[in-house]
Structure formats: C-alpha cells, structure tokens
Write the structure tokens for this entry.
Amino acid sequence: IRSGAIFPVFKIKKQLMDILKLSENILNEEKKNLSIGPYIYLLSIGLKQGEQGKGLGGKMLNALIERADSEKKAIFLETDTRENVKLYENFGFTMLKELTIPKLNIPMWTMARMI
C-alpha cells in the first residue's frame, strides 16, 4: 500500500465499472424498445466444459421453452457469441438485432423466441 500500487487498481476498477454500466444501459434500452409482448428474460445458461455436448443445455432450454409456451410468453436473450446465434436459432429463436458494445468492441446479438 505504501508503494501506491493499489491506486492504479482502483482506477482500473472504476474504468471497468463505467464500461459495464455503459453496456448495461445499452442492453436495457434494447429491452425497453422490444415489441414482443410479455417475455421471459434468459440471462444466462451454461455448462462447464466437461459437461458440454451431452444435451444438458438443450434440456434446460427446452424446459424454459415449455414454461414460456404454457405462460404464452416470448423468451428474450442477448449473446456475445456468434456460435450461440446458430444454436438458439435451432431452438426457434430469431435474431432481432446485432450491435456492438462501445469501448469494448464486443458484438452482441439480441434474440427472441416468439409464442
């Protein structure tokens, strides 16, 4: 602490928090402008590497789809992985928009599965 090395860490943390807040604001704006009716927001779904490819993710997603269908709701999500776009399309999702998170240059795709 005497060396002052902690202060750059605080500065980096603040910059990271500012960028995350910007990303959150952009994605929240996208959600506000949706015209898909009532929906369930899929924040995250994932499996550790050793469990991938066994159909477990598909089972979780199918369970959510069944729930959304029974409640007559769409499902909305964002992904930052192009491969996931194809995966979600296989489950009946459509891409709504492709955007880029400023300062990070991270591509994002918003997707929905309609009723």
User: Anything to note?
Assistant: Residues 6-32 form the longest helix (27 residues). The chain has three helices and four strands.
